[in-house]
Fold each of these.
Amino acid sequence: MKLLKPLLVLTGFLFCAAHAGAEELKVKFGYGSTEQHPQGVAAKLFADLVKTKSKGQIVVNTYSSGKLGSDPQMQSSLQGGTLEMMVGPTSNLVGLVQELGLFDLPFLFSSNKEADAVMDGATGKALAEKLEPHGLIGLAYWENGFRHVTNSKRHIKRPEDIHGLKIRVMQNPVFNDTFKALGANTVPLAFTELYTALDMKAVDAQENPLGLFESTKFYEVQKYITLSAHVYAPFIVLASKKWWDTLSDANRKIIREAALESAVAQRKLARDMAEQTEKRLKELGMEVTVMSPEERNRMREAVKPVFQKYAQTIGEDLVNQALADIRKANP
Ligand code: KDG
């Protein structure tokens, strides 16, 4: 018994010493949608995974609805090292890596399976690696989803119905040219400004996946939706390279693994939500139009010159590699 007390004191001392040096690592993680959107739910899942894997040593605090800035503003904060992590659309990164415009090519993907094949294959890896020289570490692709056109003016049953609509597009040349080719008046705007622009009728229309459409309550300021699925949009989980370079290999492994593991759940959440929202559109007060295959093909033909123009700037090798990934997804 005489030895018990000194042993307990020694054990307690050794435990404190072991953990005294390892200071808690705090990480700010920003995103643009609401906490209820699959982006927000997965951000929390990511934070929980990191906490578990690091035994509480890394604490990720998540910030929704653009609280840390618009997607482009958060990207700049990551490059400057004042923000550690974010998740946002690859479409806002084409000013840094024009090859990421691959994902913006209209009608490139026809299914989630095809999108997964490109995001998770050699093409997705090569594109993510191109971000590093720009101060960003691409860790995992999450899902925004297939994008559909909504507006406050009229049914869009055929491509000509888009003529003359003032449509908000992401600040991205492929989206701008795609809707100009359809005769729309394009208004590039950050997502954080979109609801107000629709509410004030500064723009008539927008295009986004169903999850964002519902979670950001666009149905309050839009009347018509056409399930055009004109492009698939990924999100990408990003880390600041300035911050990433300060991390140990062990902590980088924890964060990369958590980003990849949360991607699986996030994509499923996004797909389930899109399915549920599509069933609820009429309940949300929307007039729903499903374009006929013929009219959707006419829309595809009308924007083919945009596809061909940007396939050149993205590079034939990358486009062909992506097309090969897509073919493999449809054995
Ligand atoms: O969280 C949603 C934002 O990242 C948003 O920018 C993505 O689809 C988007 C858009 O249209 O801007």
Amino acid sequence: MQDVISQVIPHLSGYDEPTLDTAFSVLAEEVSASAAASAANDPEAFRLLWLGRKQGRLKSISETWLKDAPPEARKPLGMRFNQLKQQIEAVLDAPVAAKAAVVQGIDVSLPGTAHKPGIPHPLLTTLDAIVTVFHHLGYSTRLGPQVESDFYNFEALNFPPNHPARDTQDTLQIAGQESKPGRDRLLMRTHTSPVQIRTMVAEQPPLRIVIPGKVHRNDAADATHSPIFHQIEGLCVDTNITFSDLKGTLDHAMRALFGSSVKTRFFPSFFPFTEPSADVQISCIFCGGSGCRKCKHSGWIELLGCGMVDPAVFDAVTGERRKLGRDDGAYDPAKVSGFAFGMGVERFAMILHGVSDIGQFYSGDMRFLEQFS
Ligand code: PHE
């Protein structure tokens, strides 16, 4: 700015109106020039230059000019200083306009700043791919809250209060809930299974739904664990649903996701809300089943949990529906049966993309993320 505006106080050759007009139009031009040079980038420097209390140009000039002014020139001088001050204040009030003035100073021959288009996060792509496989089978999507009650997260899913099965899902409890009855206490949902209950309480069978979402556990972060991660739940309820329907559905889904040569196998397992329950393994997609480091030389990779909906779950749903006046026996275990499954999105993404540290998904590191573009 120093280059544009000299610090010297201009000489005033007389106090008649034409001389004042000329002197002030020079000052007005100086204000415009310094606004274009720096008001947008550094409005404080611009303000100090013109309005600074000690060294401000307006103050020095007005003092010098007023000192020698004949009494009749004070009014026309004062008026013109006020106008100039308004011009300066208008620049400070309108940073956008000032910026536009600066644009004139841009060298348009310089290369521009490239803004790369964004890409979906690899976890979202994976979530989408899984959900799409089930959409093609006629499933639709349901969502539920991340802050959940003990009833939906545990009790209705056949985890009784104080039952050791709760220890398998280290839970983050919301503080200050002690005065509430146990079933109403809030916690961060540890799985997407509570949305099974919410959906069945609200809707009649037949149901074929997938439930993607965030879940929370009081787990220490390591290469394969994160206290916040994503699951996709599946639920199918209808008449005559059997374990072979569950096997066929998951076998198809695994082949659709990992390739048609992938085999699935079901291992007996335990979940309080399914009976019988199973862990599903797929043949190792890295070695084809012959054994490698990734599958710990077993030839198999464990991927998800599943099972037939436990009649106790249907009973809990019926109890809730009754409270809401939906006393229709729609979920009578003698009439309907169903299966459910739950899988971790991060685990799928890690296997699909060969990622060995779950933390990479949350790091925001462009060198990692750009590999998925
Ligand atoms: N909710 C279970 C978990 O998070 C997974 C699961 C879902 C198992 C549905 C069986 C049926 O571990």
Amino acid sequence: MAAAVLDQLNSADASLLDSERPAEAARQNLIGLSLTELTRWVVDHGEKAFRARQLYRWIHQRGEAEFDAMTDLALSLRALLNERAMLGTSPVTLDHTSQDGTRKWLLDVGQGNAVEMVFIPETNRGTLCISTQAGCAVNCRFCSTGKQGFARNLSAAEVIGQLWHARRALVGPSAGINLNVDRAITNVVFMGMGEPLQNYTATLAALRVMLDDDAYGLSRRRVTVSTSGVVPMMDRLREDCPTALAVSLHAPTDELRDELVPLNRKYPLRELMAACQRYLERSPRDFITFEYCMLDGVNDSDLQARQLVELVREVPCKFNLIPFNPFPGSGLKKSSRERISAFAQILIDAGIVTTVRKTRGDDIDAACGQLAGEVQDRTRLAERQPVLAPIRLVGRI
Ligand code: SAH
Ligand code: SF4
């Protein structure tokens, strides 16, 4: 992960002569480093190893941005940090709070790319929804991120920097971890832009910092990785750092899922269900959350609900039905409220806990899964697919 940050810095610097190199570029961004990497950096710079933990706590537990404010670090170390290190996060270009308290930030990640993050306060918890890529290569049929094409992976610093920034914005720097429960981040979901398991290195690095008691100390059960079903990486996550897992299902048959989630052609439903079962052997939760975007006349019939019950028979799970969040040119419509209720009831009658996602932050366009509508279409995907072809109706009754 440090390698990713360094790679980025190195490649950004490659075209510059030493005399032209801005001072910033020579500095190491410490935000995305694990404690082990930070320790290596500190030792490499002639300091005692234990200083790294102090520094790490200042950065993440206390959200401090200024090295000079880290009062228990020796003055010489603070001077070194000012000269050779920095705490760099992506600039915020937009910060909006909706009437229901949902807050959305748009972050500039360079070269015309932006990603979003959203904070959703609820009575007993606060959930931060973060992004892992600018755009997404999976190109799901109903997803505006997918329609923008894939620009690039975010670095570990850019992913963890989202939590660092949001926490400072919500509870203030040096606030400690348990203050102001109303505004505290208790949960993180990887449900913003991008497919986290197609940016595995940065996702794993960020997860480790989030879970670390010396940093954010979040519980594994309260950090949810959401995936469109990258089967081999689900197995890797299960080994490396199992957290709660959400799988974006959206269809009960391969025929329909091939169209809605193109990755299904590579990892079809039978393999996906088997991967879910394997994941559960190590998961901190004893169920998988299946997300299911409700598309009018496409995947919302009674028959399809019954097919779903069959499909997931061997997988302890909950369902989260997400009313489709429309965007221009999608050619798709949201299922009616009655249809969603009838669909949910079939799952509930089969003993599956099912919730319908409330739409939050509507007035600021901040519902998860419908982010960054304003962002550039980097790969001109929309131009290449000007009008989306109608989806064949499968299994309608
Ligand atoms: N790439 C990951 C995580 C990001 S998307 C994934 O696909 O799981 C988070 C959730 O929002 C996914 O379940 C996704 O399918 C859903 N989603 C995407 N676009 C949506 C839309 N327009 N309306 C409703 N849900 C959407
Ligand atoms: Fe990518 Fe997820 Fe959108 Fe599919 S739903 S295109 S995987 S961000």
Amino acid sequence: METVIEPTTARKPRFASAWLGGCSGCHMSFLDIDEWIIDLANMVDIVYSPVVDIKNFPEDVDVALVEGAVANEDNLEVLLQIRKNSKLLIAFGDCAVTGNVTAMRNPLGTATDILKSVYVDSTDMQQQIPSRQHILPVLMEKVRPLHEVVKVDAYLHGCPPSAADIRKALEQVLAGTPELIKESKAKFG
Ligand code: SF4
């Protein structure tokens, strides 16, 4: 772990969480921190998250929790924005860490193989792969965990990580000791 968020910074740390190719279960677990989310909101500025209505990832983010794997081109674009603008990027949950459930399609072939099998080879009518430019995000041929695409600073395992582990990890980040995140229990979906 190279990046440490200084707890004595004059401004509040800027906190983000993002949802890429995942089921949102990691963010549901995040909400299970219950009333501690009020304490968290007092300690940080939540500048981007599914729990706030901000469309574009902002600049100068101190810590970003990123749920889900890279499954389509939208995920890729958002992840590159997150990496470019975040000091500490945490792979949040097993889909982000390993691909996990989101990557279960990988052994079946490429996205093109699977789409062709479902929409062309297995149908008798209107055999065509669905494609609506700027409406349907284009699938990556293979789903990738975050660290295969960008540098990841820390990993928070679990499917989903427990609320207790999420709180512990964030407390450590805010205290400037994020290396302890590695003690989170690994649990694979
Ligand atoms: Fe959902 Fe589990 Fe993946 Fe989190 S790690 S997005 S809970 S499948």
